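Incident log, support desk, overnight shift.

02:14 A customer reports that sequence design results differ from what the structure should imply. Their input is reproduced verbatim below. On-call engineer (initials T.W.) acknowledged and began investigating.
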């Protein structure tokens, strides 16, 4: 090998027997921390979130170093795949105005909720998921899963959110123009809860962008990398993702790299101290 590379044998053995440098040891130590955070994050974190996690533990390494070590060792965030959005807006039910109007900055929990529906593929057929998100904390406060797009799918998600949070009157509830949200049953439930209804403009997914982002994240980080044999298997996995990982552990860039649960806890503490 030394002859092929035109390297002196004495120089090669000197290099091989040389003690590991301090920088190399430090990089190896940081790489170990990166691997731990990558595993804790279910392999969905890229270098920015990994770096934030290390900083939260007191590490002072730079983001460029984290990015380089991850690239050199093949550590990368799970990539997304495209998915289809289906909304039945061709109906004769009343349509609410777009009161939210993309005002996504909310400084208090339980003031604005977003909701939408997506689908999960399984070997048994589609499993539909309806979610309700608090716009301030980005927490999924209500959800429901079913085999069809029946109106109970969305009403069950809203009931769960209301029962778990018990918001005051005047909460702004935003959705697309789907028939489930425009139905008489759903509108009556909103009235009973004292909520104001807001709907996106026709065919404009950006009017409900944070909710669309959650579903995209769910698909990218979990669904696209599973092959669910049954709907029940998918239910268990989606439950674990929402309640255990997403709400309580996953770092959100829009929340200062905190989880929804930690962000809300901090908000409550600051409110009590004020």
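02:41 Re-run completed on a clean worker. Output:
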């Amino acid at each position: 090998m030394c002859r092929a590379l035109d390297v002196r044998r004495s120089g090669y053995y000197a290099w091989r027997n040389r003690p590991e440098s301090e920088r190399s040891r430090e990089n190896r130590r940081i790489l170990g921390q990166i691997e731990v955070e990558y595993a804790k994050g279910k392999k969905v974190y890229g270098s920015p979130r990994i770096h934030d996690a290390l900083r939260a533990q007191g590490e002072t390494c730079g983001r460029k170093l984290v990015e380089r070590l991850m690239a050199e060792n093949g550590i990368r965030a799970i990539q997304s795949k495209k998915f289809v959005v289906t909304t039945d807006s061709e109906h004769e039910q009343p349509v609410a105005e777009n009161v939210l109007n993309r005002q996504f900055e909310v400084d208090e929990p339980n003031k604005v909720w977003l909701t939408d529906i997506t689908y999960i593929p399984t070997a048994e057929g589609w499993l539909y998921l309806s979610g309700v998100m608090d716009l301030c904390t980005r927490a999924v406060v209500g959800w429901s899963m079913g085999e069809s797009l029946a109106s109970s799918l969305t009403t069950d998600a809203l009931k769960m959110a209301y029962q778990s949070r018990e918001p005051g009157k005047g909460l702004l509830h935003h959705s697309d123009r789907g028939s489930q949200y425009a139905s008489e049953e759903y509108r009556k439930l909103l009235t009973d809860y004292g909520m104001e209804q807001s709907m996106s403009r026709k065919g404009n997914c950006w009017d409900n962008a944070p909710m669309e982002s959650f579903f995209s994240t769910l698909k990218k980080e979990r669904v696209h990398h599973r092959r669910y044999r049954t709907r029940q298997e998918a239910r268990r996995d989606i439950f674990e993702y929402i309640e255990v990982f997403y709400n309580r552990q996953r770092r959100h860039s829009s929340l200062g790299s905190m989880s929804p649960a930690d962000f809300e806890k901090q908000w409550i503490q600051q409110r009590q101290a004020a």
